[in-house]
Automatic annotation (TrEMBL):
This is 3-hydroxyisobutyrate dehydrogenase-like beta-hydroxyacid dehydrogenase. It comes from Kribbella pratensis. It holds the Pfam family NAD_binding_2. Keywords: Oxidoreductase. Residues 7-165 form the 6-phosphogluconate dehydrogenase NADP-binding domain. PANTHER family: 3-HYDROXYISOBUTYRATE DEHYDROGENASE-LIKE 1, MITOCHONDRIAL-RELATED. The lineage of its organism: Bacteria, Bacillati, Actinomycetota, Actinomycetes, Propionibacteriales. The keyword Ubl conjugation does not apply. Belongs to the HIBADH-related family.
């Protein structure tokens, strides 16, 4: 990296990727982008950026490359088949902001090592509304020195940057976070089921739960962030995350089964919860 702000390449402009890229550009970092579908770059209108015609071209000019793609297989396709790693500079840093398996994060770091490229797994938590407010929590796995170098970039879109540990730790942190949120959603559903059986009015009870010691982000998010309008978009993503969580803790066997099952149940009933809260 030069004495000036490092050049940041970015790939992946979905619900969270686009706001992250916007924040990086507005933070004064030279932003270079590539998109499989050029129309997705419309999300960056009004922000300074340079478009490239290939992954290789973007890689060659970037000190840092951020990926915010849907699945681990997408990362590998871009990094290997798209020749991203092959064309990145030695000492450059590849950052994965997507959610995936810790095992895949470690594999990406292994593939990057021969090219002298550092890799951080840095998934984000908070959802689209929080991303637009630039208040995400960024959960980072990787070498301490590299995390420290990139923290100013992360702070352009984050309220918290938490270094959890070595490569793959960021993904573990994100998956445990999501699993506990889904378990909390299941808790809320079960409490409301009991209340309805007693014919208690739902809305005042929700006011109590949100204002009292029982409150949680999972409870607060129903309504403002998770609504009947977007739940059918969010629910498959949460179920995918719970599948990833199950795969991440599979080696623990029966020790993890209760947590996994409860988290999956919470994700499956997310639409039911929004319907009850909105009633």
């Amino acid at each position: 990296m030069s004495d000036n702000k490092p050049t940041v390449g970015f790939i992946g402009f979905g619900d969270q990727g686009a706001p992250i890229a916007q924040a990086i550009a507005d933070g004064g970092y030279p932003l270079h982008v590539w998109a499989r579908r050029p129309e997705s770059l419309m999300a960056l209108e009004g922000h300074a950026f340079t478009t490239h015609s290939s992954v290789s071209e973007l890689a060659a000019v970037s000190d840092i490359v951020g990926l915010c793609l849907r699945e681990d297989s997408d990362n590998l396709q871009v990094a290997v088949e798209g020749r991203l790693l092959e064309n990145m500079r030695r000492g450059a840093v590849l950052v994965n902001h997507g959610t995936g398996l810790p095992q895949a994060a470690r594999e990406l770091a292994r593939l990057a090592e021969p090219y002298g490229v550092e890799v951080l797994d840095a998934p984000v938590s908070g959802g689209r509304a929080v991303a637009l407010a630039r208040q995400l929590t960024t959960i980072v796995g990787g070498r301490t020195q590299v995390v420290e170098r990139l923290t100013p970039v992360f702070r352009t879109f984050s309220k918290e940057v938490i270094h959890v540990g070595p490569a793959r730790s960021g993904q573990y942190g994100k998956l445990f976070n999501n699993a506990l949120m889904m378990m909390n959603h299941q808790n809320v559903i079960e409490v409301l089921d009991l209340a309805r059986s007693l014919e208690l009015p739902t809305r005042p009870l929700l006011d109590v739960l949100r204002s009292g010691s029982a409150t949680s982000f999972a409870l607060q998010a129903i309504g403002p962030s998770i609504t009947s309008e977007n739940v059918h978009h969010l629910q498959p993503l949460e179920l995918l995350d719970m599948q990833l969580f199950s795969g991440a803790v599979d080696a623990l066997g029966n020790q993890a089964r209760t947590v996994v099952e409860r988290a999956i149940d919470g994700a499956r009933r997310l639409d039911e919860l929004t319907a009850v809260v909105g009633a």
